[in-house]
Amino acid sequence: MEAENGLKRDRELSPPAEEPAAKKMRIESDPHSTVSQPGQGEGTSGSSAEANGSSTVSSPPQGRSHKAEAPKPDFKSKNKGERIKAQKLAYSEKRKREKWGPRENVPRAKAEGEEGEGKTRLPKKKVALLVGFCGTGSHGMQYNPPARTIEGILFEALIKAGCVSADNSDDPNKVGLTRAARTDAGVHAAGNIVSMKIIREPEGVEDLVATVNTHLPPEVRLWGTVRTANNFNARMSCDSRVYEYLFPSYILIPPKPGSKMAAQMASDKPVSDEALAALAGATKTGYMHPFWAVEDLGEPDLERKRRWRVGEESIKRLRELVKAFEGTHNFYNYTVGKDFKDKAVKRYMMSIEVRDPQVVGDMEWISVKFHGQSFMLHQIRKMISMAILACRAACPPSLILESYGPTRIRIPKAPALGLLLEEPQFGAYNAQMVVGNRKLDDLRAKGRAVPEGDYREPIDFEPYREEIARFKLEMIYEKLRQREKETGTFDLWMRGVDDYVEYDFAFLNSKGIIPPEAVAKLGNALNRRKYDVERRLRQEDVGPEGAEESDEDLEAPVGNPEELEG
């Protein structure tokens, strides 16, 4: 009796056996199922339980699976890990892949209706493409289908060469395309940088640069490629840009006697149409520039201008004027759509150089190099215009310093024909790559295995100087001079300036001040139409299909920190 009581007490004190997972699952899925508890229904048979309308838990029938489905991750879960799992799962389902991982060297699935075997995905690398082009006939640099642009031409050539896969061929943004400097219609570039991820070793291609150039027109060239850091951005990594403006020296000749500009310069104050006749006569009897002092023999002025050679005094004055542009200044008068207080109008000009004149054929040309961190819309064309106008009017450099103040004046744009992007520069980026390469050298010295592909070359146009020089001579300078010879672009522009004075150009005086008469009137639509010089000047600033030609980029200003703060 005591033994039976002991066994019964042991059974009551011992913990109940753990229920199998399958049994738990059946209980949760079947609300009518019952589970016997200790001390309840121990003697009830299976048949009696069925008679009472409930079922007891039993082993599942053979061949039937009761595996529970795991809940899908929730995008809106408060758990960050669950959200990441949900994103990966959705991406995997979209790509029809069973696991998360890199897609390189994975055979591409055939699209519906596509013939042939799936192609192997080749690795893509971020590179800098060193390019040059003649902008005549194009709608600018930036990709903008269906317009004919430089990036569109280059991207199509890369597709044909196998550098861009078919999956990415419909949109350059898929390969992360950026450019160091954006040029608009009619502007040329001896060197520019376009960066993107490309296939560097397409199947069957031995010389990548030569292959791409076979698919490019003669006016667009690929100089070379440089493997860059994965986070490289051509615009953001660019320190500065170098531009060249080329113009015939004859536009430095002072205004023709009898023109409105000549009359204003003679009186050193704005003149009206009524006073023009009297002043014109006085101008003819007073001092006259040697070019205009020659007796008119019936020869067109333009032919005589092209044979004229600039004097040393004019070149010296021009150099003094452009030096006033160097440094950090408020260039809001040298762009459009900006106010004096706009932070973006402060730009840093590193250096501006006027080269010695060169005679090509029967015409003399002057080259001016602009080296600045960044430039606004039309800035270079307005800067060179101001320098030329001030030089031929014998204005002091203080006029340019006055133009940085809050007084708004109207400065016409010089023709886009003479503008050329020489090259963008990447000094800070190249210095970072040198430091990185030294660290890799140190690792190798310690016996570490460092692949050659981890080293990065500097972005530099120096290895291609000879090719670029030939291209500039044949495809840019020659076409530029030929167009000037056929159309007289610069002469048309200058005669338009001389024939339109009103009060806008009253700042072109020997005192270097901006009189009240020269202040741009922005009060009403009538004044805007009356004093809008650029709309009334006869110039060739309309490109293909009416696209306005302009100079370079709209990049954010990157000023000299010391000068900007001071």
Automatic annotation (TrEMBL):
It holds the Pfam family PseudoU_synth_1. The keyword Nucleus applies. Keywords: Isomerase, mRNA processing, Nucleus, tRNA processing. One of its GO terms (biological process) is tRNA pseudouridine synthesis. Residues 322-426 form the Pseudouridine synthase I TruA alpha/beta domain. It comes from the Eukaryota. InterPro entries: PsdUridine_synth_cat_dom_sf, PsdUridine_synth_TruA, PsdUridine_synth_TruA_a/b_dom, PsdUridine_synth_TruA_C, PUS1/PUS2-like, TruA/RsuA/RluB/E/F_N. Residues 1-13, 20-31, 66-120 have a biased composition (Basic and acidic residues). Residues 542-555 have a biased composition (Acidic residues). GO terms for molecular function: pseudouridine synthase activity; RNA binding. Residues 32-62 have a biased composition (Polar residues). Residues 1-120, 537-566 are annotated as: Disordered. Belongs to the tRNA pseudouridine synthase TruA family. Formation of pseudouridine at positions 27 and 28 in the anticodon stem and loop of transfer RNAs; at positions 34 and 36 of intron-containing precursor tRNA(Ile) and at position 35 in the intron-containing tRNA(Tyr). Catalyzes pseudouridylation at position 44 in U2 snRNA. Also catalyzes pseudouridylation of mRNAs. This is tRNA pseudouridine synthase 1. It comes from Calocera viscosa (strain TUFC12733). The lineage of its organism: Eukaryota, Fungi, Dikarya, Basidiomycota, Agaricomycotina.
